Amino acid sequence: MRLVVVGAGIVGAAIASRAARRATAVTVLDAGRSPGASNATGSSFAWIGAWGQWPGGMMALRGGALPQWHQLQDELAGVHVQWTGSLSWRDQPHTQPDVTRTDDGSEVLTAAEVAVVEVAVVEPNLREPPARAVWHPGDGAVDPLAVTTALLQSACGSGAQVRLGVRATGLRTRGTRVVGVETSVGFMPADTVVVAAGTGVPRLCEPFGVPVPVTASAAVLLRFDAPRGLVKALIDGPSLEVRQNRSGQLLVPAACGTDVSEEALAGIARRSAQKIRATFHHAADIRLDRISVGQRPMPADGAPIIGPIPGVQGLYLAVMHSGVTLAPLIGRLVVQELIGGVESPELVGCRPARFTTAS
């Protein structure tokens, strides 16, 4: 099979890596010059967890997300997951039982346990520990660009070609079959085209007259230089999400709406720095390093859009949020379908056909 993957973000890279191991002729195309940097991958907070919102058909993927990250870490030397656990707190009533264990094994901890577990072990630098918090010890985070690079290197090691700086301008068809990709450097034939181009998926699928309702949502990621060991876990507080990466930088995601001007971003950075200093001891000297802005693909119903478009052969879609959490699992399931010929039950609720089915 000649497989062309459009999109060298973490999802496309995961699919390409798995496919190339199956002795498939794989070519990966991306308009960017650096793997993942020009799309949502490069601005992702990259929190890997199995809790939170898993809408619609996405719920069937929940159980496999973390195990596939553990497997990928064992398989590829360039994949390093920081299994720090996550600590989350929101406004919660204080009349609940002292300890509540959720269905995924996490614990809701009360003030007494905060003193023993959260402050002393998890986050000793918190200025004002919450009265209640949820501790997810199995959560982790990655450097998504490093992982994407490792996946593409793995694919190349198995014979794949990665073509960066090559823009997919359209899909060529013969009858009802897609036979390749029109690109900025010419036509590339394929038996199957996987479109994993994030917010670019609707444009490439528009000629087929099938709705692929994906909108772009701006994501801002701020990086601050900070003392090592300032933040231990992934923190998800009422007004601040933050984690510290392997090099010691603090990563802070932020919402920006549609205004991504320099002035707006400077304001976001200033407010984020104030929040960090107000939340942690020893944070007075943090300094902004850089800000990245990416466009996250957001399917209309929140669930991934994965699979063939009805009535079109040789075309397969893979677009989702969050791609970082799901990438290793999606890589395995998609290749299982395309090359193994085995339909993945976990993907049944994610099919593009759900948008064309009459209600």
Automatic annotation (TrEMBL):
The entry's keywords: Oxidoreductase
Residue span, FAD dependent oxidoreductase domain: 3-336
Top-rank lineage group of the source organism: Bacteria
SUPFAM superfamilies tied to this protein: FAD/NAD(P)-binding domain (SSF51905)
Name of the molecule in the record: FAD-binding oxidoreductase
Organism of this sequence: Frankia umida
Organism classification: Bacteria, Bacillati, Actinomycetota, Actinomycetes, Frankiales
